[in-house]
Amino acid sequence: MNPDLTNPRADEIDAILKRIPFAQTLGMRCEVLGDEMTAILPYQEKLIGNVTIRALHGGAIASFLELTAMLQVFLVSDMPRPPKAINITIDYLRQGHAKDLYARAFVMKMGRRMASVRAEAWQENRADPVSAIVAHFMVAAD
Amino acid sequence: MNDKPKKEYDIAAIMNENINVMRDVVPWANETRFRVTKVDKGHVFGVQPWAEHLVGDPDTGVIHGGVITTFLDNLSGMACTAAMTQLRFVATIDLRIDYMRPAEKGRDIIGEAECYHLTRTVCFTRAWAYHETRDKLIATSQGTFAINKPRFGDGKART
User: Fold this and answer.
1) What is the CATH number of the domain that holds B104?
2) pLDDT digit string (tens) for A30-46?
3) A60 has a chain B CB within 8 A of its CB
4) How far apart, in whole angstroms, are the C-alpha atoms of residue B130 and residue B120?
5) How far apart are CA B145 and CA B91, in angstroms?
């Protein structure tokens, strides 16, 4: 393995996901290369919000994006544990179809006390996001 | 355009009569296990019970923010439908959630949503999550919802 691609935090991401019951309920997992992480939410029937049009529930998508944003902050920081969310704003851009969902998060600002993060979820085409969130997290231990 | 005055319905009353059906048909709502407890015109109440599989912080047993987002999103959408005089369903355009304090382990969370303004195409909502009263909040939300055109049984919109 290319040593430039290994991140000592990467293994911790997997361990954190396994420890969070709600992440297990969603069934999400993450692939990490260096400081770049892709979160994957494999399709399951229980994630559906509208059975007539077979759309994923907005709450499930928002939960997945909030966890992705939280893990990205953890990945690029030296925090001992994942940060706490202050708020999230979610835009629902397109219908989430009954198939796998992917997400990536970008830390726009890592402050001493707060981090501001943007995350997007997509299905077939990354240029056509299903939803996007902006989230703020507390990163100070206080 | 159809200029004929449409018959008006008390949608909130119809929703109250079918209060359990509204959640039972939503798989993700069954997974998070919230209940709708009361529907008034443009105003919906619900309860989100604590459960192990919803925990977001294994050290404290606090349920994950995403559960509260799901809960308030769903109640807010129902508050929009409950504000109308024709049966219409809505889709979330955007939703902002502020987390004031963590919910306590093992306790029910009460949710309350209101649709405070309505146009022909868009609904505006506010919602609250708390244990006892709105004086001590766990989270609040503010959202906008698009009003969908009525659909046929095959899911296609009417023109």
Assistant:
1) 3.10.129.10
2) 999 988 999 999 999 99
3) yes
4) 31
5) 5
